[in-house]
Amino acid sequence: MIANQLKNAKVPVDYEIFNERTIMDFLNYDFKILIDGRLCKPVKGGTMNIINPANNKVVAKAPKCTIEDVEKAVEAAKKAKFAWKNTYVGERAGYLFKLANIIREHAEELIPMETAQYGGPLSKTSNFDIPAAIGEFEFMAGLGRSLTGMTISADPMSRVMTFREPCGVVGLITPWNFPLVTAVSKLAPALVTGNTCILKPASCAPLTVLKLAEYVVEAGIPDGVVNILSGPGSEVGEAIVSSRDVNKVSFTGDSHIGKRIMEIASSMVKPVASELGGKNAMIILDDAELDAVVETATYSAFFNSGQNCGSPSRLYVQEGIYDKFVEHFVSAAGKIIVGDPMDPKTMMGPLAYNGCRDTAERFIESAKKNGSKVLLGGERPTAPEMKDGAFVMPTIIEAYDNKQEFMQEEIFAPVVGIMKIKTAQEGIDFVNDCRYGLCASIWSTDFRKALKMIDKIEVGTAWINQHLNIVPETPWGGTKESGWTKENSVLVLDEYTYHKHIWMNIDEKPHTFWEKMLDIS
Ligand code: NDP
Asked: Is 309 a known active-site residue?
């Protein structure tokens, strides 16, 4: 479904160019950070190795910033903020269109770069990551121009209204699972609404965002409006969040890190937009359409090796359809082609780095130890060409208790728990009995029943007979420990602006406060 909706944005790709030589070029490439309109090296000149998770070889070297670089970037963003805010919105939108076009022109370089740094297969990076980044810039360019305030009928002798103000300097901190598009989905709305930005991508996959730094210069965006720094979250990320001159932080990542960021920000009453972890569910009822649910469950659970914020990782299946569903789901997941992400036929590549694979394996081992049956996978691939990579085969584990660790915790890997339920209500109770509340889907041909169920489910996004359908036009975000923010859609404009309230008195002979209070006019 996502792929269908992105067909228009799809970029032409010549797979032949994605060979070993292209990857070597990344290694020889001098990636730079962006501060105050200048592409430069960090003050202390550090670099970090970027590892290709398919073979654990160094694929590139990226700048490693420190607090000194954050200070310079904050200063630049602060200096630029009033001029940028006062730029005509159409001009700001024009820069977004320019960035979309530049990305389109460079797609054939960005696609393998994205694949090499975090293992998303070419089929995904060419059909989703890069087209989606283009789509986000174009959508936000149009959307930003529709920003309005309110007029309020508070008093006949007054004119009361609100104007949308940008937050000011915003810190944008992003994860590795869709490196470019998660960065763009923050940068685009922040810029078009008049904020200046400091963007920090994840340390294991910063390359395409560092390329974006070059495109910002090429597009002619004024100095200081966009600053891009790569470097460790514990130092660079925390320095951005801790700076008194950063007026708002928008963060996507793990819930634990999100809490740490909120903790630091709370001492300054700094707002934090947070898109955090999830433990997303599918409730599959007896009257679900079997083929449709099997296809969607297979795709959405294992797409990008299950490293999607919206991937379902716990499936509650009603007893009447359970055996049939399990048989078909296991069979379909068993046919997923796992392999070198640079091979265009590969459906699922490695996890983003060895640590992610180790976490997945810990959960699988603990489930086995506790008596759960592994219905598929549970191990690394045996093919010799994958032995050095961070691979885990598509894995399905049968749960006997919703409290089991793998049914409660985010694993962020191709590991799915499946559990039999008796009734729809039992499914609802299980979905809600979890600290996360990002998304869930209900599978039933009875829409009335499904809609009523959605009323009772505590998530930010709920689908009926669909899962993982995320496009720029629709809001995305969670509840509970998944964060309370909305990205995409018209709602994202609220994240990067606030209403400045203005009250004008038009009474030629205004009464004084005492006259009104004491009625002595
Ligand atoms: P992390 O939380 O580990 O990292 C996200 C970003 O935060 C990185 O840039 C990281 O830098 C930075 N960071 C780390 N520590 C700090 C800190 N103390 N202060 C400030 N910044 C810090 O997430 P992952 O990159 O591992 O991404 C996976 C997670 O993201 C999953 O939990 C997933 O659910 C979530 N996610 C949620 C989405 C949603 O829409 N709800 C969408 C996509 C992902 P560094 O890389 O240097 O550590």
From this structure: yes
Q: Please choose, from the candidates 194, 199, 250, 203, the residue with its C-alpha nearest in 3D space to the C-alpha of residue 227.
A: 199
Question: 51: how many CB neighbours lie within 10 A of its CB?
Answer: 22
**Centre of ligand 1 from the C-alpha of residue 139, in Å:** 25
Ligand 1 lined by 229 (C-beta under 6 Å)? no
Q: Is 275 a catalytic residue?
A: yes
Among protein residues, the one whose CA lies closest to atom 10 of ligand 1 = 233
- Residue 11: what pLDDT? 56
Q: Is 486 in the pocket of ligand 1 (CB under 6 A)?
A: no
Q: Which of 167, 309, 356, 439 is catalytic?
A: 309
pLDDT over 60 (residue 324): yes
CATH homologous superfamily for the domain 280-464 = Aldehyde Dehydrogenase; Chain A, domain 2 (3.40.309.10)
**Which residues have CB under 8 Å from 428's CB, separation 6+?**
283, 453, 456, 457
Is the beta carbon of 171 within 6 A of some atom in ligand 1? no
On whether the pTM is more than 0.85, the answer is: yes
What is the per-residue pLDDT across 119-133, written as a single tens digit (0 to 9) for each? 999 999 999 999 999
Is 121 within 8 Å of 112 (Cβ atoms)? no
* Active-site annotation holder among 136, 275, 481, 495: 275
What are the structural domain ranges in the chain?
Answer: 2-276+483-501, 280-464
Using a 6 Å cutoff on CB, does residue 284 contact ligand 1?
Answer: no
| Residue 150, number of CB atoms within 10 A of its CB | 11
CATH architecture of 2-276+483-501: 3-Layer(aba) Sandwich (3.40)
Q: Which of 295, 431, 486 is nearest to 441 (CA)?
A: 431
409 lines ligand 1 (CB under 6 A): no
pLDDT digits (tens, 9 = 90+) for 335-371: 999 999 999 999 999 999 999 999 999 999 999 999 9
Confidence of residue 517 (pLDDT cuts 50, 70, 90): confident
